[in-house]
């Protein structure tokens, strides 16, 4: 049995988090985890609904000390919770407030200073590397949760190489002394890895809130010291830049969940006077590669990870990916450690004999000046049985653009076969908190709007 630290770092007094501008030390975190662990059920699976990032990290650590795991589903709808309780008997919920279906937890107060007498005995905690720390779930094409078990050792190694890549981008030997703000929820795999785990195992300190609106993001950044990292998504990044607010000085911007347009990356680097790094990963393999978007389309894998295969059948293996793992994307493989991302294999479309991917089309749609958000949708053939060639529909948030202007911009970027036959103008797309647009949500929206419903 090999034990690995629950929290990694040389200085127990260094902050693991910032709460309203006050530091919470790593030693204080261990004391708080022990206190929370005493309140948990003897057995079960934790579903942590806390918006507060520190409370989420406390729940994670407390469950691990209890020999339990954490459930990370794609959403927290009543239907999903019911499915989880069937799939994982003994599932219990914790959150920021007592009551309802939540298991009551008295969260420790985040005092600005530590009590030496109280914390003296709390200096270390460890977890068996083979212990399943989390079950990350995808919705799957049928809507049924598909779980992927993540052992603590796998998460530990993945986070270590990811932290090294971030530190190298900052020109530092480690992330010690670095702070971050994340706009993505801790319950999402990207937010889990790039805000919570990187703090516990990579020595960075996160701001405890989950800001969404541009003004809230700026306020959160102003509460933490430099060097500062912003962990965000293309949607949140574009909204922040469009707000024209004065963003507190950044040292690095990290982006994931969807392919980032090079023009938006260049715009961000110019506005922040800091590099922007994209992360490529998936639920099955975790984070596996990064790129500096403004320096070209090629991705570099994490240390020890190699990509093999061909286009729609690429596989990641090595390093923190112990078993060869198929990737759900179409890749152009340059060599075992470099590749280009062409699109997702499950969103490839064929119109009039020409092939593309919805992610590729969405990339170009959202790169158009004046488009705040947008997504293409291809109606299923059975929905239009009398039409020889099914045509795309575009859902667009672009209050200042006309139909003619949008189509003219698309013609400069896309083959005529992929121009939308119909454009549906919206105030907003039904994205989830991480900025993703689940296919089921888009299909539901399309069924209502294209049929002339809402």
3D architecture notes:
With 454 residues, this protein is an alpha/beta fold. Helix content is 29%, strand content 27%. It is built from twelve helices and 26 strands. The strands form six sheets. An eleven-stranded mixed β-sheet has the order 3-2-11-10-12-13-14-15-16-21-20, with helices on both faces. α8 packs across α9. About 1% of the residues have low confidence.
Percentage of residues in helical conformation: 25-40%
Strand count, sense and barrel status of the largest sheet are: 11 strands, mixed
Instruction: Provide mean pLDDT, rounded.
Output: 88
Number of helices: 12
Strand content: 25-35%
Sheet/helix structural class: alpha/beta
Uncertain stretches of 5 or more adjacent residues: 383-388
Name the strands of the widest sheet in spatial order: 3-2-11-10-12-13-14-15-16-21-20
How is this fold's topology laid out?
Elements lengths: L2 E3 L9 E5 L2 E4 H12 L7 E4 L4 H13 L3 E4 L5 H10 L3 E4 L21 H4 L6 E3 L3 E7 L7 E6 H19 L8 E4 L6 H14 L2 E3 L6 H9 L5 E5 L1 H9 L9 E4 L6 H11 L3 E7 L3 E7 L5 E4 L4 E3 L6 E4 L2 E6 L2 E7 L2 E7 L3 E4 L2 E4 H9 L6 E5 L15 E5 L5 H9 L10 E4 L13 H11 L5
Parallel strand pairs: 2-11, 4-5, 4-6, 5-8, 10-11, 10-12, 12-13, 13-14, 25-26
Antiparallel strand pairs: 1-7, 2-3, 8-9, 14-15, 15-16, 16-21, 17-18, 18-19, 20-21, 22-23, 24-25
Helix pairs in contact: 1-2, 2-6, 5-6, 8-9
Key descriptive features of the protein:
454 residues, alpha/beta, 5-stranded mixed β-sheet, 12 helices
């Amino acid at each position: 049995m090999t034990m690995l630290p629950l929290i990694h770092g040389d200085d127990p007094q260094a902050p693991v988090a910032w709460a309203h501008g006050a530091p919470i030390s790593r030693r204080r975190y261990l004391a708080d985890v022990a206190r929370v662990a005493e309140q948990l059920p003897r057995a079960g699976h934790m579903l942590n609904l806390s918006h507060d990032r520190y409370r989420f990290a406390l729940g994670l650590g407390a469950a691990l000390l209890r020999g339990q795991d954490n459930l990370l589903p794609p959403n927290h709808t009543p239907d999903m919770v019911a499915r989880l309780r069937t799939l994982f008997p003994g599932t219990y919920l914790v959150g920021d407030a007592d009551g309802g279906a939540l298991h009551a937890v008295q969260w420790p107060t985040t005092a600005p200073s530590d009590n030496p007498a109280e914390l003296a005995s709390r200096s270390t905690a460890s977890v068996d590397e083979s212990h399943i720390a989390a079950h990350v779930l995808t919705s799957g094409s049928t809507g049924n949760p598909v779980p992927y078990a993540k052992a603590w050792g796998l998460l530990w190694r993945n986070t270590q190489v990811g932290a090294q890549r971030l530190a190298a981008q900052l020109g530092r030997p480690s992330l010690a002394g670095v702070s971050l703000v994340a706009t993505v929820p801790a319950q999402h795999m990207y937010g889990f890895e790039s805000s919570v785990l990187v703090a516990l195992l990579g020595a960075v300190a996160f701001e405890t809130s989950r800001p969404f609106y541009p003004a809230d993001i700026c306020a959160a950044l102003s509460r933490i010291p430099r060097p500062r990292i912003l962990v965000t998504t293309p949607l949140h990044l574009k909204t922040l830049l469009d707000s024209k607010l004065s963003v507190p000085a950044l040292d690095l911007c990290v982006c994931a969940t969807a392919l980032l347009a090079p023009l938006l990356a260049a715009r961000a680097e110019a506005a922040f006077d800091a590099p922007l790094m994209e992360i490529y990963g998936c639920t099955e393999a975790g984070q596996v590669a990064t790129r500096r978007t403004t320096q070209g389309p090629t991705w570099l894998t994490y240390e020890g990870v190699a990509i093999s295969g061909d286009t729609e059948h690429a596989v990641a293996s090595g390093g923190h990916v112990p078993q060869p793992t198929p990737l759900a994307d179409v890749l152009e493989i340059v060599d075992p450690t470099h590749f280009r991302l062409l699109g997702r294999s499950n969103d490839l479309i064929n119109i009039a004999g020409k092939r593309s991917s919805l992610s590729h089309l969405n990339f170009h749609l959202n790169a158009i000046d004046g488009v705040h958000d947008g997504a293409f949708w291809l109606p299923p053939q059975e929905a239009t049985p009398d039409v020889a060639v099914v045509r795309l529909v575009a859902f667009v948030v672009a209050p200042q653009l006309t139909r003619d202007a949008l189509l003219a911009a698309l013609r400069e970027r896309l083959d005529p076969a992929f121009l939308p036959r119909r454009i549906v103008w919206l105030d907003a797309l039904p994205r989830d908190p991480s900025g993703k647009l689940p296919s089921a949500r888009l299909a539901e929206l399309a069924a209502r709007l294209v049929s002339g419903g809402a």
